[in-house]
Amino acid sequence: MAFDPGRCALACAACGHARLLPPPTADAQALALHEQDYEDALRRLAAREPSLEAQVVDCPACGAQTRFDGHVVGDHCAFCATPLLLDQVHVERLIQPQALLPFALDRNAAQQVFARWVASRWFAPNALKRSVSQADGIRGVYLPWWTYDASTLTTYRGERGVQRQVADQRGGANARRTVVDWTPAAGAVPVGFDDILVVGSPSIPAHLARVLDRWNLAALRPPAPDLLAGFSVEVYRHGLEQGFAEARGRMQGAIDNAIRRDIGGDQQRIHGRQTVVDDIRFKHLLLPVWIGSYRFGGKPYRVVVNGQSGEVEGDRPFSALKIALAVVLALVVLALFASMNSG
Q1: What is the reported pLDDT for 314?
Q2: Range of 325's domain?
Q3: CA gap 319, 19 in Å, rounded
Q4: Number of domains composing the chain
Q5: What does DSSP assign to residue 169?
Q6: Is residue 262 in a domain?
Q7: HEC string for 188-253
Q8: Does 215 map to a domain?
């Protein structure tokens, strides 16, 4: 039996019989959404305290790591379809996923949104839309993610710029120009961060991961085995510290914006800053993704479908003729616009 997103049930692929899944208890839901202490987790990992004994298989082709449950003896890599066998398994100590987003799209729904995506590619060859309507070997996989919360306090030094108008002797009697008066500025700004999402796997190329940036985390549930049934689970390869390093880099833009607001004036210069990060907390999540591919002109192309929202991103061929016609049309429009303005 496998999890059926449409009915929120375990369904038998052979006879169609389904067993509805009960909602999680309030205690289980609260535990799934609980944010763990970052420093405490690092201490436990350093002490080699077991958090999750996982049977892990490394894909010999692409390097993705897939978790095998106790009853699984073989599978295929969700990312490149390479066969994986139990004799390749090894045991790793991992941080337990504490929550997941169940799939909202089943396989048929994922194929439908993929078909609409293919039909909407304006610059793709016409033959693509006629010959490709389904993704090959489309597989549902739960990808590992981290979320981070933190409090920051940044001390800074810089300058505040205030604009004023002065007479411009070079432009005539009524000409004016803008000058900026700069004065030193210093201070401290607190900025809090909540649920910075960082993917724990490099298996999805960055140019395809755009559709994996937006999730409704209000739908998180405890990771019950019934919700995992029928799907692959990838193990994180970017660990807790590496994930936080990426989250820390994303904080800088918001901190700089807070500094500029604190400096005030019309313009700001930041000459130096020092940030203290405190109260770091995290969650380890599993989020749903459909992964597939298709062939056109003898070449394979990858495609990714957000298993919650149905957003699609993929590699695709381009029609040189359509692009050339679009360029010519744009040049014609620009020429007409220029001639109208000159007339």
Answers
A1: 87
A2: 2-52+94-336
A3: 48
A4: 1
A5: G
A6: yes
A7: EEEEEEEEEEEECCCCCCHHHHHHHCCCCHHHCECCCHHHHCCCEEECCCCCHHHHHHHHHHHHHH
A8: yes
